[in-house]
Amino acid sequence: MNFPDKIEVILTYKHDPDDKEIFTEKVDAEKVGEYYRLINVPAFAPNIAYGDIVKVEFDEGEFYFDELIEESGFSVAQIVLWKLESKDQIISVLNDLGCGVNTYLADNYIVVSIPPQLFYKPIRSFLIREKSNGNIDFSDCLSKVHSDNL
User: Fold this and answer.
1) Phi, psi of 123 (to 5 degrees)
2) How far apart, in whole angstroms, are the C-alpha atoms of residue 122 and residue 115?
3) Would you state the pLDDT for residue 17?
4) Within a 13 Å sphere around the CA of 32, how many CA atoms are in the beta-carbon half?
5) Which of 2, 32, 128, 142 is the most buried (most CB within 10 A)?
6) Mean pLDDT, to the nearest integer, of 76-86?
């Protein structure tokens, strides 16, 4: 089959491995050889990031994530804001640190894209400090580049 140059890839995942509930989200991707590179930052998926190259499976008119082929080096942090008054300051600091910040999903949810050339340690220290202050909770999906430098 001849796949298109740009597609929406459906990512499926569980937040809790013991739970039966499965979540999905769609991200845009562009063709790279026989695979696809993600060109959007996944908002919720815990194991994939912007720029990753993935194998897809075509099923019933949809493209589904099948496996990670090549990691991009980007990492993702998902932040839930407990104190909305801290949002602008958190966004400002993350931008100053060189991160890409998406706030389009909900007033109290931020998705942060961390490029591979950045050191993650100061970013993570900032997030941990904000969590300790009761402003946020966060989870992160770290690339090998960032997890090796913690």
Assistant:
1) -65, -45
2) 13
3) 78
4) 14
5) 142
6) 97
Is the Cβ–Cβ distance between 49 and 143 less than 8 Å? Answer: yes
Query: What domains, with CATH codes, occur in the chain?
Result: 6-70 (no CATH), 75-147 (3.30.70.600)
Give residue 119's identity as a one-letter amino acid code. F
- Residues shown for the chain: 150
pTM reported for the whole predicted model: 0.89
pLDDT at 36 over 90: yes
Tens-digit pLDDT profile for residues 139-150: 999 999 999 987
Contact 38, 71 (CB under 8 A): no
**Of 127, 119, 117, the residue nearest 150 (C-alpha):** 119
pLDDT at 113 (0 to 100): 97
Structure tokens at 99: 């991160």
Looking at residue 1, its pLDDT comes to 62
DSSP string, 6-22: EEEEEEEE-SSTT----
d(CA 90, CA 95): 9
Q: Are 32 and 52 in contact (CB under 8 A)?
A: no
E strands of 50-108, at which residues? 53-59, 62-70, 75-81, 100-106
